[in-house]
Amino acid sequence: MVNPLSIYIHIPFCRSKCAYCDFASYPGREDLWEAYFRALFSEIEQASDRERRVETVFFGGGTPSFVPVAFIGEALEGVAKAFDLAPGAEVTLEANPGTLTPEKLAAYRAMGVNRLSLGAQSFDAALLRDVGRIHTPEDVEAAVRMARAAGFENVSLDLMYALPGQAMNQWENTLRRAIELSPEHVSVYSLIVEEHTPIAARAPEIPDDDEVVEMQRLATALLEEAGYRRYEISNYAREGFRCRHNVAYWKRAEYLGFGAAAHSFFSGERFENPAGLEDYLAGRRRENRKRIFSAEAEEEAILLGTRMCEGISLSSFRSEFGRDFPAGREAAVQKLVEGGLAVLDRDAFFLTERGLELQSAAVLELL
Q1: 340: domain range?
Q2: Distances (CA, A) of 221 to 218, 224, 367
Q3: Most buried of 130, 133, 140, 249 (most Cβ within 10 A)?
Q4: Judgement on whether residues 320 and 241 belong to the same structural domain of the protein
């Protein structure tokens, strides 16, 4: 079998843009739906390679659950025709809880979507309104019930902390309500205030650095107590339910991205599609190509590998780069190990819990 492949499909449409959103997403452009999806289907068809087995497909956005279901089904059919879609492939759809119905969920499941990623973000109604989310906490609970009724056995919840005005007890309540819904996977992300977003213009008061760390620690404690194992800085899963698609990213496996703003890593190159709808519809594809040579590939392996709790496999590093880790980085590794931020054993180099909190600084030491 030829090397496995992952597929990312970007759906850049949404009902309204959240206050913190810096992604390529465009509310109020229903007039372009038909043209966009025709271009998307064509892009997938032109990349056809039946020798490549697709192990994961991920529909991200935007809000994939906002557009008509038929578009999602046709895109997935296009992938199955263009590539060898593996039996048991992980097929994820991101969804806003406020856009789901029993009929939609049943249709997704019937077409082959088997993993649902719900953007819950918070179970505090006031916080949700403040950051521009269109759903309520009750919508999240209803979405999980409907998903189970439709046959979904793999549901993930995205949660956000360090929101403007968010207190520790509000964050704890969000975590506990999420755990009560018994999803298979939970992602927890700290708010990052990006320039040129509505939330940045408000200059909001957000929890300070110490509070952010305590929020992350609380998430780890409560989720692990409930049976979720942390496997990456921001991700927790029950046994057998790690997000295979994202693991492929972190392990530098090959993936192709389709649609506006989609990125790819393929045949040793990284490239991307333009983010603008008009540029994408004009046929611009695979721009900003960059060949990743050995030195940069090593740096990527360190940057991405240290995000995962299992860390960097020493045998895999040796196999890919022809030399042992930490060759040339002994002093930095020793400093991190002696500082309690990392562990180097016979099989792997990985960051401790404290090291994960300081991953960016640890990576700078290593690079």
Answers
A1: 293-367
A2: 5, 5, 31
A3: 140
A4: no
